[in-house]
Amino acid sequence: MPSPKKRKPVTPPGKSKPAPSAGRSGSSAGRASVSGASEEVTELHEALTSELETLADELSFSRHLEAMSDLDGGISQLKLDVEQIRMRGYRFKNFLERKVETLEQKWRAARPALRRELSRAEAELTPLYDQLARRVSQASGRAQLSALERQVQQLKARVEAATEAIDATYSNVSQTFYQTRSQIQEVLFLLEQVEQASFDLLAGEHPVQAVRAKWWRDGKNKGPEGILYLTDQRLIFEQKEEVATKKVLFVATEKELRQEMLLEVPVGAVEAARAIDKGLMGHQDHLEFTFGEDAPYASAYFHIKGQDNHAWVGLVNRVRTGEINRERYYAEGESPEDFEQALEEAFASAPERCTSCGAPLGPLTAGQRQIECEYCGTVMRW
Length: 382
Prior knowledge:
Blueprint: H1 23-59, H2 62-87, H3 96-138, H4 142-196, E1 207-215, E2 225-231, E3 234-248, E4 251-266, E5 270-278, E6 284-291, E7 299-305, H5 309-321, H6 336-348, E8 370-372, E9 379-381
């Protein structure tokens, strides 16, 4: 009998035949998948580590500790600075004495509350941070890191809430301190410039403000640099800059300080003052003045540096209207009546006729301390 034919093996139901080997392409895809997952875990780990570094910086509370140090020593220095500017003859911002005294009282009350909030935040949050930082450093899996990511965000929210509570104890005092310090630094700058100036103040004249400026006298961004002064009687620009006196191949080899008063306008001759914001995001402060007939120029344009142009416009207008006298400082034993009398005496010496040709002189504007005879050209000051 013929032998029976051999049957081919039957694949059991639900089970497919073995696929042919994928060879190198299959193993490469597997490695790429593992590599992608590994990179994702690494990126998440690095992101959490970066978040924790930021939290560590916030939990050091360095900003608050620096502010405490500034306030502890700074308020005492403000008191000394106010005494100094009065001794050197600054007669405005009569609110400074009371402001600094109130600031000292408020800081004395706020300091214990600030210390309590700092201690509470440190005691509650530092252990949580340390524990979380250890777990993140030891974590390796995607699921584990995802869970830790949620915990990091929760800790971040608690740190933000603690920071807000800390700020609430002293932010008003801190802001007032830095604002007052800036005001006094501007006054100290003013007094330093007045003491170095090439011109003298007139009898009964007191400086109000000064700022570094460039006068665009010769066109856009062209002209002398120096100091723009505002007194209770005049607007003054003094050139004060180093200019080249010798050049070699267009390089300045010798310089000299050029310092002289180039512009002097009675405040009564300032018809308008306008603030102009220029530059990227309007961060360049410019001032434009329009003058009356008694001024040597019809207008003047300045780029000022380090101070707010809108504040300057307000200050100029307060001097023009006399409102600045509301914040005039009087030393012990002085009174507003004494000031008015001294001012009247200064203006009483103004001539009614030209001292050279005898021609009658025109009316004076507020703050005017010199006049030129329109007949003979003689300039008279008093």
